Amino acid sequence: MRFFDQCARFVQEVDNNPSALSEVDKFRQGPEMRRVTEKIADRLKVPYSDITQDMTNAAFYLCAYEFAIKAVNSPWCQLFDEEDAKVMDYASDLREFWTRGYGYDINRKSSCILFHDVFNRLNEAANESKAGQQVTEAVTVQVGHADTLLPLLTLLGFFKDSDALTSTNYATQAQRSFRTSHMLPYAANLLLVLYDCGGGDLRLQPLLNEKPVTFPGLTSRSASMPLYQDVKDHYRELLQSCDFETECQLFKSPV
Q: Residue 57 falls within a domain, yes or no?
């Protein structure tokens, strides 16, 4: 499920391109992150120069992993206060935004192949149900990683803010929707359930991490379980295009 590894344009323009992370690098060198490292140095009573960004990241993730896995308040957590945690959380979101999220169009387009596979399976089940036949593939389970799920969520339009995450707008992004700690916890999952309500009334319910969500842009009273045809109409442009081979092709620069 690492389709993005086969997307030449994504690999060249984002994955293997250091400049693609320019906003992340700027934030790491910015005042918010600098203040976090200085506060750690103050708590440890060591010179500021002794604490690097890599040390700060390592300490924060050790704190986070031990809290998440063992439910313990690790000694590493004592190096951070709540504001520090918010800054570190934003730094993580910023990286995911530019490497797997809305930062570059190819990030989401790299999941075109998965997008079409999902809807092809739904269409097959819908057609069999309409014909009164037993659905041959009642359940499909596909397993991947956060790097698999985030581009698809982005392609579907979930958690898109009005402004892009950048190195300079941390203060205005406190209420952002793009928050990977909520979107992609451990065992993150996206579930699409197709219901046959009788009389050709097919409806599609999306659930993210076992919680109902609504497709972005579908705001009717039945948005939590819209007509399957309405969902297809909403994503018509992607369904008619979003070709993996075309989107991932490397184009030669004009001479």
A: yes
